[in-house]
Amino acid sequence: MGTLFAAKLAPHAEVWVVSSHPDTVEALNSDGARISLDGREVQSRVKATSNPRLASPADLALICVKAYETERAAIATSRLLASDGMVLTLQNGLGNREVLERVIPSEQVLVGVTYLGASWLGPGKVRQAGEGPTYLVAKSSSSSWAEDIVRLFRQAGLESEVRQDGDSVIWGKLLVNAAINPLTALLRVPNGALISSPALRQLLADAVSEAVEVAKADSIALPYADPTAQVEEVCRRSRDNRSSMLQDVMRKRPTEIEAINGAIIREGERLGVDTPLHRTLRGLVKAVEGSYQLQVKTE
User: Fold this and answer.
1) pLDDT tens digit string along 199-258?
2) CA torsion 125→171→145→6, rounded to 10°?
3) Which residues pair with 81 in a beta bridge?
4) What architecture does CATH give domain 167-294?
5) Catalytic-labelled residue, pool 8, 66, 125, 173
6) Catalytic status, residue 173
7) Fewest CB within 10 angstroms: 46, 90, 118, 245, which?
8) How many whole angstroms separate alpha carbon 171 and alpha carbon 66?
9) Span(s) in the chain for CATH 3.40.50.720
């Protein structure tokens, strides 16, 4: 997702990508940030480094790393952020804001969610595999910053909007991720496959329903009237996309299962709502992670 945003924003701002992966830094500096879209490739020149101080002072830092890398990203961001700069997290799951605010002043942290989809094709190259809006949650102290960022995003062709209903927006995306990501990762299918048969649609609906009960218990009003219909629509819009969790499993990397389904389980426990399906999904994904080196190779 970081490569996608870098490529979109580069024609409209000076963009630096700070990455701990040397192959990504090398690819971005030599070939730019590349997006494969509808059979053509869009390339944007960016600057990349593994040293945060080379990218400072930054007016805006986008955090697009995995949830389990948030603390490392927060420390790096603190070294590059301008004194009056802002940090915008566009990560999955719950708890990323709190981790960032342990290192960066809370008045400089903005939370957002994006429904854009991207599949990793290699260092510095992604396939845009899903359209969707990006929402920024504005606090009163940062509303002007949020409006400025939305203007920049729209200039870059990114559908974007400032929202005041923070819990609703964040839970709206969390519920989508918690239903789609583990199922696609376990079944090894793209998003659209989850609405291709009655059995798959029922699994999807059951995962949605269980998460909705947790949100209700926490008095969170979701940003859509019919959660199951919304999740199915996301599957439709991103039918060819491989979810981030599926990509992690295919590359034998750690997943964000704890920040997504784990968050729903923990909130359910706090509120007295049982979440047996999400516990099962979390257990199965963690079992897949723990068996990467034992898996039978396909011929």
Assistant:
1) 999 999 999 999 999 999 999 999 999 999 999 999 999 998 999 999 999 999 999 999
2) 0
3) 58
4) Orthogonal Bundle (1.10)
5) 173
6) yes
7) 46
8) 18
9) 2-164
